[in-house]
Design a protein that fits this description.
This protein is α+β, with helices and mostly antiparallel strands. About 45% of the residues lie in helices and about 20% in strands. The longest helix has 22 residues. The termini are far apart.
């Protein structure tokens, strides 16, 4: 790639336009040859390209970010990435939407339309934005609220839990809801914010909490601390009464080199999970496991029946009130996490 075009592409995350290629000295004939099927340049959108070699090395999320960048570059009006596109750039956890799309928000009367794989939202409100990877995107709070409005309660709950886990204060989400009181489907977002919890450390933990909440067993506590044999402290995903609900995803079994989080062979991970659950139960608690299949479809109702029975066994054995010594220990050992996001120190601000 010629230097002038290489510089432009680098500044735009790897994408460039036909006009930029012409300005860099390429002829229309050269561009046709470079963008033919299997050519050196891949067509991302009409008139927007990237180098095919770069595209072949990207995962699914990164490929969609390239499409998002191309949509911004081809937009005829100033546009900000929002909704699913902003979530991709900000690395907010989300459920896969029913239909993948690039989302842009532009200034204009409220409304949305989808054309050519791009959904354009119009908004007259000033937007709170972030700059990430050289792109302007809606803020963490606004992005999560928009996902709830656009895709519904469950999608919104996952996204809102994710941004709260990243360090976004509840006040930021409430502020966005207050500003968007007349926006479509804001009630979905309000419900998701109300039910959100900063203690969810994964999508499965959010879905597991929603599943347990549907049983109506009582108040759910996340990241409940228990001291087990040997003096080790563990934090349980969910607790209701004297019963623990642990969420087990496949990522725990997949090696880091393959995109998971396992640093040991799967059999070692499973063995330690079982030993951990045994030690937790030895402290006077019951336990249940929740996996991904328990949260959807026919598996969800089967899981609800199983979890309800397991909780009933615990309640019959230990009662429904948490022993005072377990309560005191958990209160004295909150789950500590380092927020990914910078927040101002208001106490020391001038």
């Amino acid at each position: 790639m010629r230097p002038a075009l290489a510089a432009a592409a680098a500044a735009q995350g790897g994408v460039f336009s036909r006009r930029q290629a012409l300005l860099a000295g390429y002829t229309a004939r050269e561009i046709r040859a470079l963008t033919r099927p299997g050519g050196i340049w891949a067509v991302v959108r009409h008139g927007i390209y990237c180098q095919r070699l770069d595209l072949d090395q990207l995962d699914t999320r990164e490929r969609w970010v390239i499409k998002d960048r191309a949509a911004v570059l081809s937009s005829q009006r100033p546009a900000i990435l929002s909704h699913d596109s902003a979530a991709r750039v900000l690395r907010i956890d989300t459920l896969d939407p029913p239909t993948q799309s690039t989302h842009l928000t532009i200034l204009g009367p409220t409304g949305s339309r989808t054309n050519g794989g791009v959904t354009r939202h119009r908004d007259l409100l000033p937007l709170c934005v972030e700059r990430a990877d050289g792109l302007l995107v809606t803020s963490y709070a606004r992005t999560a609220v928009d996902i709830a409005r656009w895709h519904g309660y469950r999608h919104g709950l996952v996204a809102i839990d994710s941004v709260r886990q990243m360090g976004v204060p509840l006040s930021d989400l409430d502020a966005e809801l207050s500003r968007m009181v007349r926006h479509p489907h804001v009630a979905r977002a309000r419900a998701a914010v109300s039910d959100s919890d900063a203690g969810a450390e994964s999508v499965l933990e959010t879905l597991g909490r929603e599943l347990v909440a549907s049983l109506g067993l009582g108040e759910i506590e996340t990241q409940f601390a228990v001291r087990i044999a040997g003096g080790r402290i563990v934090w349980c995903d969910l607790r209701v009464g004297c019963h623990i609900f642990e969420c087990h995803g496949k990522l725990k079994l997949i090696p880091v080199s393959a995109g998971g989080v396992a640093e040991e062979p799967p059999q070692e991970v499973l063995w330690k999970q079982r030993a951990r659950q045994t030690d937790i139960c030895a402290e006077g608690l019951g336990a249940s496991s929740i996996v991904w299949a328990d949260c959807f479809g026919a598996g969800r109702e089967r899981a609800r029946q199983r979890l309800r029975k397991e909780y009933a066994v615990t309640a019959a054995r230990f009662g429904q009130e948490l022993p005072a010594h377990l309560r005191r220990f958990a209160d004295a050992h909150p789950r500590r996490r380092s927020a990914d996001l910078w927040t101002p120190d208001l106490a020391s601000a001038a």
